[in-house]
């Protein structure tokens, strides 16, 4: 067996279901995660996990390795090793990190009763819970640049989100400022450079804001989400973890309100469409 198949199986078998937000099943004979559980967490096929562990697939993409590392909650050193045995260069300090540390994972798990998602410094979504998918649309149905908040904001304008003109201006400026700060911190990140180039060519609004070189920070905001349960007014807060560029976005509703009731309905039905 290859080193890749050996470490992948060992790390899968040591990862307990409850560590990754799955229910613990008494008496299960499989140590750690089942292959289908890891596949679901990393959004790859079960067959591909089998082939990796049997040594029949030896060259996963960097995107797949990053997804496996997040699903298995690897430490920084373990992430580097997984990249190396997969035949890939480890992410450098000059490239936007996509790894979610075990500590951030645990914090996210404990906030599971609210819509929540984790984003990189460039606003690529890399982790979300079921309630986030129910209220915002399932990110698993989007690929590539369509998972980036800045791209969608300036090219799609999030038709399912409503906010006043003042907030629209502030949010637009905040996103451009975030991307500029990331561009300065991670000069070797080709994907980031390509994103900025595409945005400037596609969106005159983004290009104008980029040229103004304004810096700003995110503030708490209130917006209305159009959902299958009806419109829901939510408060949006952006949290950060010490020593990390990750952004944790949390949605909450006013207690005992109609918005809270509609959010609770979404918790039950998930991403199903209500008739």
Automatic annotation (TrEMBL):
<protein>
    <submittedName>
        <fullName>Helix-turn-helix domain-containing protein</fullName>
    </submittedName>
</protein>
<dbReference type="InterPro" id="IPR010982">
    <property type="entry name" value="Lambda_DNA-bd_dom_sf"/>
</dbReference>
<dbReference type="Pfam" id="PF17765">
    <property type="entry name" value="MLTR_LBD"/>
</dbReference>
<dbReference type="Pfam" id="PF13560">
    <property type="entry name" value="HTH_31"/>
</dbReference>
<dbReference type="InterPro" id="IPR001387">
    <property type="entry name" value="Cro/C1-type_HTH"/>
</dbReference>
<dbReference type="InterPro" id="IPR041413">
    <property type="entry name" value="MLTR_LBD"/>
</dbReference>
<feature type="domain" description="HTH cro/C1-type">
    <location>
        <begin position="32"/>
        <end position="79"/>
    </location>
</feature>
């Amino acid at each position: 067996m290859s080193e890749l198949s050996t470490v992948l199986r060992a790390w899968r078998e040591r990862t307990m279901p409850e560590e990754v937000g799955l229910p613990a099943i008494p008496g299960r004979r499989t140590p750690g995660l089942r292959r289908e559980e890891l596949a679901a967490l990393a959004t790859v096929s079960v067959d591909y996990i089998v082939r990796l562990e049997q040594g029949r697939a030896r060259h996963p993409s960097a995107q797949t390795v990053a997804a496996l590392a997040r699903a298995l909650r690897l430490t920084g050193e373990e992430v580097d090793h997984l990249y190396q045995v997969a035949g890939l260069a480890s992410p450098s300090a000059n490239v936007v990190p996509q790894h979610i540390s075990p500590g951030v994972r645990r914090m996210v798990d404990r906030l599971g009763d609210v819509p929540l998602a984790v984003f990189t410094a460039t606003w690529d979504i890399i982790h979300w819970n079921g309630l986030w998918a129910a209220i915002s649309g399932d990110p698993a149905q989007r690929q590539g640049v369509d998972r980036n908040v800045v791209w969608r904001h300036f090219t799609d304008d999030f038709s399912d989100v409503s906010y006043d003109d003042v907030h629209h201006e502030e949010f637009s400026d905040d996103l451009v400022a975030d991307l500029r700060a990331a561009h300065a911190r991670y000069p070797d990140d080709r994907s980031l450079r390509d994103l900025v180039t595409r945005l400037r060519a596609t969106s005159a609004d983004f290009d104008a804001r980029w040229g103004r070189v304004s810096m700003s920070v995110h503030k708490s905001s209130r917006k209305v989400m159009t959902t299958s349960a009806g419109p829901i007014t939510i408060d949006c807060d952006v949290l950060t973890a010490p020593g990390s560029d990750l952004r944790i976005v949390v949605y909450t509703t006013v207690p005992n309100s109609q918005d809270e009731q509609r959010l609770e309905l979404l918790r039950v039905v998930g991403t199903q469409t209500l008739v």
